[in-house]
Amino acid sequence: MNTDISTDWVRALDAIKEIVGPAGWFTDPAELEPYLTEWRKILHGNCKMVVRPASTEETAIVVEICHQARIPITPQGGNTGMVGGGVPEDGIVLCTNRMTAVRELDADNSTITVEAGCILSDVQNAASDSGLLFPLSLAAEGSCCIGGNIATNAGGNNTIRYGNIREIVLGLEVVLPDGRVWNGLRQLRKCNTGYDLKQLFIGSEGTLGIITAAVLALTPAPKGRLTAMATADNWDDLLKLFGIINGRLTGSLIAFEVFTRLGMEITTRHIADAINPFKQMHAFYALIETVYYGNDSAVREALETGMGEALEQEIINDAVIAESARHADNLWRIREGLPEAQSVESGVIKHDISIPISKIPNFAKAGSKLAMEIIPGCRVLPFGHMGDGNIHFNLLAPENLDQEKFFTCYMGKVNRALHDLAVSMGGSFSAEHGIGQIKRGEMIRYRSDVEMDLMARIKSAFDPHNGMNPGKIFDPVQAAKSTAR
Ligand code: FAD
Ligand code: MLT
Ligand code: ZN
Fold first, then answer.
1. Would the CATH topology of 222-343 be identical to that of 346-437?
2. What is the pTM of this model?
3. 7-95 adopts what CATH topology?
4. Residue 384 beta carbon below 6 angstroms from any ligand 2 atom
5. Which CATH number fits domain 222-343: 3.30.70.2190, 1.10.1670.10, 1.10.490.10, 3.30.930.10?
6. Which CATH fold would you assign to the domain 102-220?
7. For residues 460 and 470, what is the distance between their CA atoms, to the nearest angstrom?
8. How far apart are CA 401 and CA 347, in angstroms?
9. Closest residue (by CA) to atom 44 of ligand 1?
10. DSSP string, 330-352
């Protein structure tokens, strides 16, 4: 533990140790280390102790102690966030990974009530064991937690059909920054009783309180899925393919994901079980997933007819429809292996852009040109959730460039150029990953004074001492100053 610590803090930390017991805290630097950095290991922070309460009650007492002693708290779930929201500046990391109970599954109401530390894939499995579907799905689902998903308003692969997690959260339980517990665990689909407070916590990235449990809406589980991959020569053709498939399969289409040749190359190179289903390499790939509830024949026919039409019109040049669950899993492995493959391949500058779907081809063409002008030789790797307008416009370092130099010389400049481009086309600089630490500057640049002012006031209403995840999303003082007239 650091020695530069006041006696008030020492007393408070000792009291916390008593509350959570030996399994609920650690201060050993080697144990702290994974909690001080993030998935890409670009950011590194500091904290005095990691605290892992086992219940809402313990969480509330820990938070109250921190509030009294003015110890900042950084909430953490699975620590898979992409923007440094879980990287602490000081104080304690409060990790939810001991709060993993499924409190209730009400099949007749199609709801599940889970604690914040439940791993996303465990929630999916609990739902499917009851013949239901929890539709949020993303590549980090084996390690991210429901609390983190809600705190970031996670999107993922199935937004096109089921929305972001905001659309499926019915109720929340939250420990507020002063330690009070708000029990909003309502299992209702209608409840118009004043301000809908849960919406404020969804996407608040741990700055307004600690989500300890949630009620989530489930949907009937489909009987099966049909997964296909098609290849194309350019963005305009991908857009046309999306139009054909979406038109024929609305309601059944749950994912329309895209990536480029470079994506196929690096995933099949670095991810052991990702196998290219095509004999040749192609410029673009679309991964399509549909579900059916009765017999598969109508969906299969619509998918085959759509693919046939696209082939006939030379919109696509090759296609496969998975004939087994294993084949489908392999197609998904290529897509889901992309983030990891990129990290193995080289340094990555990320852009989590959303844009009206109709404008994706123009954005991608103009964005590639800009990126190449700013970083000569950079390898442009756009991929992601085209069906909902969210493209991860990532850039890999030029092969001969020092990784450090790639970030220090180019990141700020290229971020600015691509975010300006997205915003000028009616898009967003942060579609699904949030703001965290990495995009604080962009908040000030792109959000209006009115928005910043309202956000600063909400923050100060919930957390007047700025103890809950300070320094994330925005600095309340700076936000207030930037809007002062
Ligand atoms: P953490 O990383 O631990 O925390 C994220 C933020 O939430 C932090 O600000 C933290 O302080 C706060 N927080 C965590 N738990 C709580 C809580 N209980 N109460 C209050 N605040 C809390 N994201 C997508 O949206 N779509 C994707 O498709 C997607 N794909 C990914 C693929 C990979 C391979 C990886 C590594 C990440 C991906 N992500 C994606 C990003 C990440 O998985 C999501 O943001 C996820 O929702 C974070 O969950 P977590 O439990 O890991 O949260
Ligand atoms: C994904 O969709 O795989 C992640 O959100 C993207 C990323 O790694 O940028
Ligand atoms: Zn994504």
1. yes
2. 0.97
3. 3.30.43
4. yes
5. 3.30.70.2190
6. 3.30.465
7. 12
8. 10
9. 81
10. HHHHHHHTHHHHHHHHS-EE--E
From 43, 50, 80, 166, mutation site for ligand 1 pocket: most ligand atoms within 8 A of C-beta: 80
Q: What is the pLDDT of residues 195-204, one digit of tens each?
A: 999 999 999 9
220 burial via Cβ count (<10 Å: 0-12, 13-18, 19+) = exposed
Instruction: Give the tens place of pLDDT for each residue, 81-120.
Output: 999 999 999 999 999 999 999 999 999 999 999 999 999 9
Testing ligand 2's pocket by substitution, the residue of 38, 40, 42, 82 carrying the most ligand atoms inside 8 A of its CB is 82
Report whether 98 contacts 52 (CB < 8 A): yes
| 104: helix, strand or coil | strand
Q: Which ligand 1 atom minimizes the distance to the CA of 117?
A: 18
Mean pLDDT of 465-479: 89
For residues 240 and 255, what is the distance between their CA atoms, to the nearest angstrom? Answer: 16
Domain ranges of the chain: 7-95, 102-220, 222-343, 346-437, 447-484
pLDDT by residue (tens digit) across 421-447? Answer: 999 999 999 999 999 999 999 999 999
Per-residue pLDDT band at 404 (split at 50, 70, 90): confident
Task: Report which of 227, 146, 179, 176 is spatially closest to residue 63, judged by C-alpha positions.
Answer: 179
How much is the pLDDT for 68? 98
